[in-house]
Amino acid sequence: MATILLLRFPFGRYHANPWARHVNEGAVEIPPSPWRLLRALYAVWRTRVPELGEEVVHALLAELAAPPTFHVPRHTIAHTRHYYPDSRDGTDRTLDAFAVLSPQAELAAQWPGELPDALRPAFERLAASMPYLGRADSLCEARVAAQWRPSDHETWVPVDVAEDVAPHATATTVLAPELPLRLETLMARAVDVRRGGLLFPEGSRFVGYQRHAELVPLRRPPRAGPGEPTAVRFSVLQAAFPPETEALVYTDLLRQAALSKLKADPEDRPRTLLGGRTTDGRPMEGHAHAHYLSVLRDRRLTELIVWVPAGLPEPELVKLAAVTELRSSWEKDWRLDVRVAGYGGSEEVAPELVGPARIWRSRTPFVPRGYRKQSDSTEKYTSREIARELRYRGMPAPESVEVVPARDPREFVRQRPSQLSRRSSRGSRPGFFLELTFEEARHGPIALGHLSHFGLGLFEPVPAG
């Protein structure tokens, strides 16, 4: 059984400047350093619960000196700027950087093994008495838990200097105590360390941490067709999720990254199910080849799904699973770290897109392929285009097609940015948010219209009732 310290920040902010980093760099020490945690526990003992015995606290801190594993909730880095007068009648600027996270989210430090019974009550007292972590602005509530499971967390694992770190892995270094712990070194103030001509406190060392995605485990799903999976799910690892309006950017980049893993010759890359072309270079007919779809929550892109109704052969599945980074060669801001979270049948891998349901509602704008006649009303135009798209996929026309008020479709990128400049990538074609009602419940995924294989015109099932 593990020993776990859980920290919650009620104001949704965590302020902590990494050691040896200037405050105006705007850096935030996340995950927190083991050195910071031990100093905080020591300070709480001396100032808030001095009645705890010295022998017990010293033994407890020695047990906690080994670098723990950190589980960090989803967050983004932000800062405020402050200006103050200097001695030359001017102004100086300083940054207050912090991590923004949900007030209900818990950051966890997990040590392997269970504490001795004599030490656990002291740890619980110290945790309950901790007022903040990092700067005094970082008000926190702490508690000790024996069992806890991460949910939508990043996992940071300490790595030994002799261990290999994969080239695509995200890693950082934080300050930790030397082992065995020399307790007196925890009392060193930063100003005293500098005054002594040192860069780092005596008795401290840097420890490397490597980030892993905390992925929801999938059961081994039932295989489709001749034993081949039909869907692969990717988790987005970045702390700040991209906006939903740019979902098409990243589905386009995912396709490029997948094809780059397949063939050395760029002309041969699209000649696969992932590329949508036959071996003689012609576009594949029907819609059994790859769809690159987005999972959107709270107006953010949180996951990506590759759906191949015809089934993914093992060589292509292996290459697809090797994709870890999406990067644009023409726009530096378009970059995303991803990892495979699971693969198998679409019902198991992408249940939020499968249904079944009678009512399906647009998640991204439906962009018709055909042109609108002058005599067409919006309802007639969209109904005709939806019926044509569904017929092409072997599905019946819906009972009704209703235009629903939602986001302005013009906000969404509606042209593949790899083919156009960013200025014009939102596209000139009209888009609509629709609600489709069928006579009987239908299974998905349902993606219709222009660039439906890149996630435009993606519909989500509406639960009955």
Folded structure, characterized:
The chain is of the alpha+beta class. It has 3 domains: 3-213, Alpha-Beta Plaits (2-Layer Sandwich), CATH 3.30.70; 223-351, Alpha-Beta Plaits (2-Layer Sandwich), CATH 3.30.70; 355-465. It contains 8 helices and 20 strands. A 7-stranded antiparallel β-sheet has the order 7-1-6-3-8-10-9, with helices on one face. The protein has a 5-stranded antiparallel β-sheet with strand order 12-13-11-15-14. Mean pLDDT is 85; it is low at 213-226 and 421-425.
In CATH terms, what is the architecture of the largest domain?
2-Layer Sandwich
Round the Cα radius of gyration to an integer and report it.
Answer: 27 Å
Cα-to-Cα separation, first versus last residue = 43 Å
Count of folded domains: 3
- Write down the overall mean pLDDT: 85
Low-confidence stretches: 213-226, 421-425
Helix content: 10-25%
CATH class of the largest domain: Alpha Beta
Largest sheet: 7 strands, antiparallel
* Number of distinct helices: 8
Q: What proportion strand?
A: 25-35%
Order of helices and strands: EEHHEEEEHEEEHEEHEEHEEHEHEEEE
Gross geometry: elongated
Q: Write the CATH fold name of the largest domain.
A: Alpha-Beta Plaits
Determine the structural class based on helices, strands and strand pairing. alpha+beta
